[in-house]
Amino acid sequence: MNAPPHSDGTVGKALEILDSVAAHGRPVRFTELLETSTYPKATLYRFLQILTNQNMLDHNPEDGSYSLGTRLIRLAHAAWKNASLAPIARPHVQALAKYAGETIHLAQLDNAQVIFVDKLKATNRFETLAQVGQVAPAYCTGVGKAMLAFLAPKRLQLTLRQQSYYRFTPTTLTDAESLIVQLEQIRREGVAYDRQEHELGIISIAAPVLSSNGRVLGAISIATSTTRHSLEGLEAYRAELLKTAETIGAEATNWQFPS
Q1: pTM, rounded to two decimals
Q2: Tens digit of each residue's pLDDT (9 = 90 or more) over 112-126
Q3: Which of 99, 143, 161, 212 has the CB geometry, 3.0–4.6 Å to 219, for a possible disulfide?
């Protein structure tokens, strides 16, 4: 058995188990969790019982499976309302989707990853991997690079060290040096592009959402299919995208936004 990863005591262990259940994306049985768990059988079972008693997990006695509980749904909804850009940005996301006729992604940084906090599809002619609540790499997504480019130097260096640099497509950047060159260009131009770096056939133009003092709050992008637009064609949306990002940033600055 592998050595247990670092965790913050009991709470840390419980959160790791919740993450493990969530990662399966479906109801999961005890034996499946045990296969990948770093904890002994008795410890894992005890935590599953506690989480079930607290409604953080649901247990199906018929097949013995566990799934995320209703209490987590309530907490997730509260977090969406109180700790994300989504409620403030929603009307502007809607307006941008109507203007561009494409998919709009709104994201924030979650440690070194991107977490999508809102998504609005103006067309069903294509689909992207990004879904609300899901995470994605920062180094190969438009919203991720838009945020990385405007991080303070110390935080940027830490975040770059945490990237995986896995090659998803032939155009994925696979080292920090190449990414830094691109981030410098993004800072100069104010927008970032996803050049099919995370998904083949999907491109985007993205802009950072900044507070009045330049702190990164999130990023917003217009994503589309290469069958509908080229990267050059996305340039037509640059001005409206930047205007939308600036408006969201100004409104978020006047809100008590969490650090």
Answers
A1: 0.71
A2: 899 998 998 877 766
A3: 143
